Amino acid sequence: MAATLSCGPEALLSHGSAAALWGFGRELGQQIEVSICAAADRRRPGVHTYRRPSIHAHDRCEHCGIPVTSPVRTLIDLATILSPTALERAVNEADKRELVDPEELRAALVRYPNERGVARLRTLLDRRTFRLSDSDLEILFRPIAHKAGLPQPQTKQMVNDFEVDFFWPDLGLVVETDGLRYHRTPSQQARALLRDQTHTAAGMTPLRFSHAQIKYEPERVRTNLAAVAWRLRAA
């Protein structure tokens, strides 16, 4: 509060300091980070100031009585300084705390054309909320399974009263795919757990891959499929 007030009435806590205040990050280094309008001239010991051409109304919030950048603005700022892994962790934590909805966050980025950090955040969100159509999913997944040494799977079969994406009855192997990483409701999470538990109780092996893994990490999917198939054949 003292650092922000000392930088003038337009100043906002920002970057790592804002993330720490919101609860989805931590301060970086020994200085408190504050954003100010470019025209202001505020230098304070222990305070790192970021000059902005202007500070929009939708970027302004107050939390615990302290003027602070909004969660969306804070995540954009973090995207300029954090590694991809740390940025993903911050988005996950903000989602968990119900400060941002990843779908709404992605839509909000259009308000920030040419801003630093937006491209990295957009790439992260597009990758993690990526969803294939059923036909595209099957087209991409079948060659991966073939390279893993598996025969052609049965698709959209009812197994243990659940419709599954891919099924190898001779191996008892069930593969389910997940289109959305973020913001799954508790009922969706519970149903996914029930599906996996039911297949396991029936003596089968359930595997779950995201659509993004199938699209962007086919080699990792192939390696895991091959390892599981080898174990099941050995058994």
Separation of termini? 63 Å
- Which oligomerization state do the chains in this entry correspond to? single chain
Low-confidence runs: none
Q: Describe the main β-sheet briefly.
A: 4 strands, mixed
List how many beta strands DSSP finds. Answer: 9
The side-by-side strand order for the widest beta sheet comes to 6-7-8-9
Amount of beta strand: 15-25%
Structure class: alpha/beta
Approximate shape: elongated
Number of helices: 10
Mean pLDDT: 88
What's the alpha carbon Rg, rounded to whole Å?
23 Å
Give the SSE order as H and E letters. Answer: HEHEEEEHHHHHEEEHEHH
Number of structurally distinct domains: 2
Helix content: 40-55%
In short:
The chain is elongated, with a radius of gyration of 23 Å. 45% of the residues lie in helices and 20% in strands. It is of the alpha/beta class.
Overview of the structural elements:
This protein is α/β, with parallel strands linked by helices and 235 residues long. It has two domains: 2-128, no CATH class; 134-234, VSR Endonuclease (Endonuclease, Chain A), CATH 3.40.960. 45% of the residues lie in helices and 20% in strands. It contains ten helices and nine strands. It has helices at 2-6, 15-22, 71-78, 84-96, 102-108, 118-128, 134-147, 186-201, 211-216, 218-234; strands spanning 12-13, 32-37, 47-52, 60-63, 66-69, 154-159, 162-168, 173-178, 205-210. The strands form three sheets. A four-stranded mixed β-sheet has the order 6-7-8-9, sandwiched between helices. Strands 1-2-3 form a three-stranded mixed β-sheet. The chain has a two-stranded antiparallel sheet with strand order 4-5. Strand 6 and strand 7 form a beta hairpin. Helix 2 crosses helix 3 (71-78) and helix 7 crosses helix 10. The protein starts with a helix and ends with a helix. The mean pLDDT is 88.
